[in-house]
Design goal:
- This is HNH endonuclease.
- Residues 1-21 are annotated as: Disordered.
- The chain is α+β, with helices and mostly antiparallel strands.
- The chain has a domain at 35-94.
- It contains four helices and two strands.
- It has helices at 56-65, 68-74, 78-83, 88-94; strands spanning 35-38, 51-54.
- It has a two-stranded antiparallel sheet.
- The longest helix has 10 residues, at 56-65.
- It is globular and about 55 Å long.
- The termini are far apart.
């Protein structure tokens, strides 16, 4: 009885593209890169809590529009973030957009 030999894929390198199918947990767009968002901010006790992979525009906008206390108290799940009134206009826009990156606007205004 012969055994089937499977080829070993080459190791990933820094120059390799992101795996196909990387999706933002909030806007659900397919994107090149995501970052880890602590659903309860680290400053509010969420250092070892649940996280979600978000695209940079979503991650930046969440922290622009909602403060850490609000995130910990009212918006500590993806479902709650999707329902957040302050994010509705942004989510409507980003879901139709191809934007991969927006400027970090925290603290401006």
């Amino acid at each position: 009885m012969s055994r089937r030999v499977r080829p070993i894929p080459p190791p990933a390198t820094a120059a390799s593209p992101a795996p196909e199918g990387t999706r933002c947990a909030l806007c659900e767009r397919e994107v090149q890169h995501t970052s880890r968002h602590h659903l309860v901010p680290r400053e509010e006790g969420g250092r070892h809590g649940p996280t979600a992979d978000l695209c940079q525009p979503c991650h930046s906008s969440i922290h622009l529009l909602l403060d850490n206390k609000e995130l910990a108290r009212d918006y500590n799940s993806i479902e709650a973030l999707r329902r957040a009134e302050k994010l509705q206009k942004y989510l409507h826009w980003i879901r139709r957009s191809r934007v991969e990156r927006i400027s970090n606007r925290r603290g401006k205004g």
